[in-house]
Amino acid sequence: MLEYRWEKFLLQHAPRRTKIVYTALLVYLLLGLTTIIAIEAIKTGWTPQGVADYYRGNEAKLKFEKSPLEMLEVSHMHLFSVPVVFFILGHAFLMTTLPERTKLSVVGISLAAVFLSIGTPWLIRFGSGAMGWVKVAADLTLAGTLLIMVIYPLYEMWWKPPVHVHRKPGAGQGGAQ
After folding, report:
1. What are 131-151's pLDDT values in tens digits?
2. Is residue 1 part of a domain?
3. Distance between CA 125 and CA 97 in Å, rounded?
């Protein structure tokens, strides 16, 4: 684990074995993201009305409103799984050579989208179906930022020309080892 002790560990400079493990994880997460995008497309059509119908019900389309228990079950699952995926992808993305402002912007936008994506179903179901557009925007933003956080680290590990980082003498050698 010594390769991680430096102040500025970069995936691009990781040993091949580390890159292979990160690549496998990122590819699995990419497959997971792809399936959830497909599921959302089928469930809601990625439209505000489709989202409202999914949570509030629509008799004409034979869709039933979600009960409070169903809402809690979905929220429970998402409150445990989405932050873990966000943490893993954010961690990998922050170990790239992109400028700090860019990395923090993508991670910050993604975090806001996580909160909106998990919270808006409640506003739609027990508030107004007009909030469907917020859910669609949040989900599209979340999907886009998570895809960036998967694809860019893969690109940087395997295809981007190496960037050499100059470290100050003694940087990262103090503290817990």
Report:
1. 999 999 999 999 999 999 999
2. no
3. 42
> How far apart (Å, rounded) are the C-alpha atoms in residues 88 and 146?
10
Domain ranges, residue 56: 17-158
Single pTM value for the model: 0.83
Do the domain assignments include residue 128?
Answer: yes
Alpha carbon distance 121, 143 (integer Å): 17
Number of domains observed in the structure of the chain = 1
Query: In whole angstroms, what is the distance from residue 165 CA to residue 145 CA?
Result: 26
Q: Do the beta carbons of residue 157 and residue 23 sit within 8 Å?
A: yes
C-alpha radius of gyration, the chain, whole number: 20
Cβ–Cβ under 8 Å, residues 142 and 114? yes
List all residues 6 or more positions away from 46 whose beta carbon is below 8 Å from its beta carbon.
40, 136, 139, 140
pLDDT one-digit tens code per residue, 39-67: 999 999 999 999 999 999 999 998 999 99
CA atoms within 13 A on the CB side of 78: 17
